[in-house]
Amino acid sequence: MPTPVVMPKQGNSVESCIIVSWKKAVGETVEAGDIVCEVETDKALIEVESPAAGTLLAHFFAEGDEVPVMTNIAAVGQPGEAVDNLNPNAAAAPEPAAQPTPVADAAPPVEPETAAPVAAPPPANGDRLKISPRAKALAGRKQVAPENLSGSGPGGRIIERDVQAAIEARPAMTPLARTMLGSGEFAAPPRGSGVRGRITKDDLTPAATAAATAAAPPTPGDDIEIIPVKGVRKVIAERMLESLQTTAQLTLNSFADARALQAYRKQLKASDPALGLQAITLNDLILLAVSRTLPQFPDLNALFTGTEIHRYRRVHLGMAVDTPRGLMVPTLRAADTLSLKQLAAEAKRLAAACQSGKIAPD
Q1: Which of 85, 124, 285, 331 is most buried, by CB atoms within 10 Å?
Q2: 205-235: per-residue pLDDT in tens?
Q3: CB count, 10 Å around CB of 249?
């Protein structure tokens, strides 16, 4: 019997992965533990291994497809074995229609034009809305009505990416405008008169008037190239936008005399190789300075969650890394406890892992 290759679950926060490349072709012999494909989560590139030895019988998804976790993506077995029962995309074969059995004195069939339409029974409460806990929490925070969404998860379940897609599809607007729009009495234009096209209350029109004057949406022309944003790039965009929207914007500019810092770096470059300090960079020295300064100002090493302020006893330092897939910010855990040598080594390790796409989700 064929063995399915399942999209692995990478932590509680990952609901789907993108198949980046297939490493084994259909018909190729594989051993247990061989790398079958590489998949991308919202944070990292993961290798998926074959659970059994045999022949790779089928790929159920193509490269670039986004697949929910714990879904069969391939099958391994012996040549000639059927895999339709493992394929999540295989539609169930329709059952043949039962032939009517002649019955004496049967009632005449009802003509179609006289048959009264019968309404389907309403679904049970448990079946009406299938939604994951993360999707439900996000919908609550962003004021999205999940009952209006179509689920892309297993069995039509609404998952986080469905809610996020609905958030991205709606225009930016002020809180008052969003409240007025939620009443159903007003309609919003595609772009408002506020900053960066933000819709304000003055841009809203009565729903009846908007319906009467609505025009067909323009069709994108051939001069527009549409590039889907998903995986790591999508998460980067979400995090940057969330940071801008939830953080008070304040820009400070200052200058410092770095000649002493540069002189110290020259001393490190000329130090004994056995100390392992010759490769220390100015960035490493700045990371060290920040990690030692933050504990002296605990209000800066804190996070406002909306109802609470969380002060951290350790300094978990984010470090920006430019990668081919966009800006990534790995975390130097407990940076305040690391020596300069340890801090530099960990920073180089995390930067290399980000640039190669091998950074672990945690």
Answers
A1: 285
A2: 776 555 554 544 545 555 556 667 776 777 7
A3: 6
